[in-house]
Specification:
Layout lengths: L1 H42 L5 H70 L4 H66 L1
Helix pairs in contact: 2-3
Length: about 190
């Protein structure tokens, strides 16, 4: 019984090997025929050269148009970056001015507190004046903080815009690279 099973297994393995060999030979013969047909098509394809040259010229024109568009977008991006830098510099200058004014006002408030301690006779009136000035300082500080927040939002918007333009620029560079690769492939093919 075991002998019979081993014999069946051997015959199955032999049949498998014969099937694989026959399939490989068949595929090899078909591939050789396909190669010959393709070689004949390539050799007889001399009349397609003008069509391919026209297609290459069209691709070159599209590449040049893409390069011009890329250069224009780079110029726009550079201008936007310059504008963002100017807005940022203005915001920083505004913040520095507000901080300097706040420091000066703080020094002024400290000086007023010292003079108030020296002159106790007008203490109530001076206290009201200091509170009014402090409220004015708070109002100015709130305005300065609001101006700074507005400037920071503008800088953030410009940064987002720059990132979007950079992505668009990168996508265009990828398209340009793909077009160049296709041109190289078509020139080789």
């Amino acid at each position: 019984m075991i002998y019979l099973l081993l014999e069946i297994f051997v015959y199955l393995a032999a049949a498998l090997a014969l099937g694989i060999g026959a399939g490989w030979l068949w595929r090899h013969r078909d591939a050789a025929a396909e190669i010959e047909a393709l070689e004949r098509r390539v050799l007889s394809g001399g009349d397609r050269a003008p069509v391919l040259e026209a297609a290459l010229r069209e691709r070159d024109e599209r590449l040049q148009a893409l390069e011009r568009t890329l250069a224009e977008r780079e110029d726009v991006l550079d201008r936007a970056l310059c504008e963002r830098d100017e807005v940022l510099e203005q915001a920083l200058a505004s913040r520095d001015a507000a901080n300097a004014e706040l420091a000066a006002l703080h020094e002024q408030a400290l000086a007023q507190d010292r003079s108030r301690q020296r002159a106790e006779q007008d203490e109530g009136q001076r206290l009201k004046q200091a509170e009014a000035e402090t409220a004015a300082l708070r109002d100015r500080l709130a305005e300065a903080a609001q101006a700074l927040a507005t400037a920071e939002r503008r800088v953030e918007e410009l940064s987002r815009e720059r990132a979007l333009q950079a992505r668009a620029l990168q996508a265009m560079e990828q398209q340009l690279e793909l077009a160049r690769e296709q041109q190289l492939r078509s020139a080789r093919g």
